[in-house]
Queue: 2 jobs
Job 1
Amino acid sequence: MKGKKQKAKSKGEQLKSATVFFFFACVCLCGGLSSGVLAQQDSSQRGPAFLSGTPGTFVIRNARIVTVSGVDIENGSVVIKDGRIEQVGARVKTPSGAREINARGLSVYPGMIDLSTAMGLVEIPQGANATVDTSEVGEMNPNARAFYGINPHSAHIAVTRVNGVTNVLSLPQGGLISGQAAFINLLGATPAEMAVTPAAALVVNFPRVVAAGGGGGFLAFLLQQQAPNITEAITQRDRQVEGLRKMLRDAEAYGRSIDAAARDTSVPRPDQDIVLAALVPYVRGEQPVVFRADREADIRAAVRFAEEMKLRAIILGGTDAWKAAQLLKEKNVPVVLNNTLDLPPNEDAPYDVLYENAAKLSQAGIRFAIATNDDPAHVRDLPYHAGMSAAFGLPRAEALKAVTLYPAQIMNAADKLGSIEVGKLANLVVTDGDLLDARTNIRHLFINGRQVPLVSRHTELYEQFKSRK
């Protein structure tokens, strides 16, 4: 009996020891993960200059000025004051106290703009779910605003801006109506400091038919598992479209009721509905609606739906946009291409079908912009997406506009961004070569008229390990 007790005690002690070991292992693991995340965050918090830039009045002299909206100035100057471009030309008057930058041999470009990102909403997508804030529970979330979820201390922000990208549209994901995207500067200590347009566009994942077929490989296998019956898939798609249509019509009616109550106090005011209220500016055509759509059938359906509901549509994705070029041109619907460097959409497509997409849209007279895709780690590659399009038929001037002026126009921000003109925000990039060339280096960077240190997590790692043998 005593032996049994001792044996039981021994097993209990072993279990206790194993539990303690497991606890400390978890602590160490979490501590390691936390320290890694904190180290990444600490690298992005070096003081006011890093987060908000250095304010002041600046004169960039002796540079080649690529205005984008007009002719280039081969030897000119740009004056920056109070956050804006005050003067541009071959001869400018230098304000007193201005800091001069001799840019001889360098070029000045407007900062690039990416309209397809999750910047500030995602930090470490694999293994750290707490750093991912892209979607909400449920299918209809028009009141969800990406602006409130943006992390100004994200390491991706500095990595992106030091490659010449000064502005992005940060989009929510998931569901049928994902929420409202935020158009931001890539500089600021808070979301409010970064905001250009806090609620810039409504994001809709337009319903599509997911059924058997459509190519081979593992993706086709997954699609077959999700919806093996084409009739069932079409029914499901139609049900989702009808649900979307009903919510938009309800929002339109809600807006009319609010207006009627404001005009006449005897009219009962409807109960507050934050979901419908969020949709009112979009159903009235005051702000754009971004439809995620890639296949030709889905693009055509989204354009027809937008026309029916009188929405200001933007197509995001646009893999097959060139196939629907006539409709897009006729309805004046812009396209944001975010797949230029992707593989062909199916095994029968030419290898360069996506490389040539932008050129085909340009030839058809369709408004378009070139973007990357949602992953913030790759937004820094934006100039190379445009450069690839230029290598496959898109005129170089158009490729540059596709990442500067055209995205600003699509977001109704061309009065603030996209070109070097007097009165616009001083979001400028000074380079030692062509902005779209991978060999080019950024020499100076200004966002909102503030000079930004050319420091990022990547430059830190380079400095840390460049001497290691």
Job 2
Amino acid sequence: MPTVTRTPLYLRRPVLAGVLRQLPLTVVLLVVAAGLLSVTGGNWRRGLVLMGLALVVAAVLRMLLPVRRVGFLAIRSQTTDVVLSLGAGLLLTGVALAIPAV
């Protein structure tokens, strides 16, 4: 029985492969955009919490996904990316929730 080898997706459909590779970053940026829209609409606390949670999601995606699937979320080493993203996300969320509403 002959074996059939498939050409990799990045050779068959390079644009689709590129879009799929950047899907984690796209999800994070969409959540950040929703947070910015919320801030623009006057609800700054909800917007900042959304942006902080987007950074936490970025850290979790960076931690769980392999390097070939994480796309531009991989900037530095995995440990550095996760620690900085998670720390910034938790700090932003904590500060937004700690500021008293006037």
